[in-house]
Design goal:
5-stranded parallel β-sheet, 12 strands, 229 residues, DNA-binding, 8 helices, homodimer, 21% strand, alpha/beta
Chain lengths: 229, 229
DNA sequence: ATAAAGGGATAACGTTGTGTTAACCTTAAA
DNA sequence: TTTAAGGTTAACACAACGTTATCCCTTTAT
């Protein structure tokens, strides 16, 4: 299962629980965000637009049930997965939880392993749609380059590149570590017939280095450039 | 919620439990089939092709876990909902249940009401998925696009778009984040043979942006446009 | 038939930011 | 030290896109 990029928001007022769950979900490959009360949960949900929200019920400043109700009225969160994680294990609370629109209701205390099983089961059921397979997404270290969406991400921060910059970066990153001669770069990015000045490539390389904020492009003097971390 | 026509198969070796669950599910509008051991469960599953199977684990002539494993290997039952309903409430059994491909794991004893909540929650989740695939309603963030009703909603406010505007928006929103080249847009919305001026697309994009009152369409200079929040 | 209304395309002009170059500076190897 | 290769910066030209007004055409109501 591909858990990459799946975002999970956890809301609980007990820091210990937050930490334990966060650790285990991250270990599985999920990206985890946290909130310590109801209002913060709502706010962060709008910020990060998570794929799954795990809600404690008894929280300060809006209960989990209230948060769930509010989210479900908004189109943006109509389909977001929601799990209640709570010590309230009486029947009526559970039924109310599901009535509010939750996808699962888990009683505390619960082992991280078991929670993971349930989270994975939910994603397994829902997540059949995306990931068309061999799209041209390049992932090198903490750098993700998606030619379909035309975005570059460094440490989950989106970086905006111009067309030529993007094409140049994509070429270099398509074979990490391999050195591309200046002529190769010219042919691939600019085309065989186009003639540009000597400094043109350098300027683009500089802009990429600057925008990415990383030293991921190495100069091989007298030869060319290579993408490497 | 539309429960009509949804078929549920229950497998348990205790007649009392079968009867109670059957009664409650039928009262909710589901069509219920029963089996009293593992082999019969497999046989009836192939007969009626249920939407959901509720499996006891400790049954004669194949355990629920075995039944689930066997079903999951068959393409016809790859996406069938499966709930384990069992007295085995230790952690490893639950994890094993989910690993086998179950969608939920419920401990006995359970109130019929609560089981109903879980069953409904599962159908609610899956039903949306099919809805999204079949009748073409797109939901991206707080934007809902219904090509049947020809309606676009932003934050529950209805927005009226013209035909070309709607087609253009629908195309972009059908793959959120993906960049559509100007040529792709022309081919998809206007047709391969139609020739229109350079500024035509821009004008329509502008109108959409204006009417939606959102910056949901991003320009990628030299490449195209993408729908993104 | 005629008027009104609105969709759709286009031209003309304004705006932005990319791509490129030139000029000058820095570094590393012989 | 010398020198070739690349780094840096600012400035410019132009292509690409945004914006607006206008025209033509189809639809709809009177």
């Amino acid at each position: 299962m591909d858990t990459k990029g799946k975002k999970i928001l956890i809301a609980d007022d007990e820091p210990d629980i937050l930490e334990i769950i966060q650790y285990n979900l991250q270990a599985e490959g999920y990206t985890v965000y946290t909130a310590k009360d109801g209002d913060e949960a709502l706010q962060r949900a709008k910020q990060v637009n998570p794929d799954l929200i795990i809600l404690d019920i008894m929280m300060p400043r809006k209960t989990g049930t209230e948060v769930c109700s509010i989210l479900r009225t908004q189109p943006a969160f109509k389909d977001t997965l929601i799990i209640f994680l709570t010590a309230l294990n009486d029947e009526s609370s559970q039924v109310r939880g599901f009535d509010t629109g939750a996808d699962d209701y888990v009683n505390k205390p619960i082992s991280p392993k078991l929670l993971l099983s349930r989270v994975n089961a939910l994603f397994r059921r829902v997540g059949k749609k995306e990931e068309g397979g061999s799209n041209g997404i390049l992932t090198v270290g903490n750098v993700v380059i998606d030619p379909v969406k035309f975005i570059v991400e460094v440490d989950d921060n989106e970086v905006s590149l111009a067309k030529k910059e993007f094409e140049l970066l994509y070429l270099l990153a398509s074979r990490p570590g391999r050195v591309f001669l200046r002529n190769e770069i010219l042919n691939q990015v600019w085309g065989n017939d186009v003639i540009v000045g000597d400094r043109t490539i350098d300027v683009h390389i500089r802009k990429i280095r600057q925008k990415l904020g990383l030293d991921c492009i190495t100069t091989v003097k007298g030869v060319g450039y290579k993408f490497d971390l």
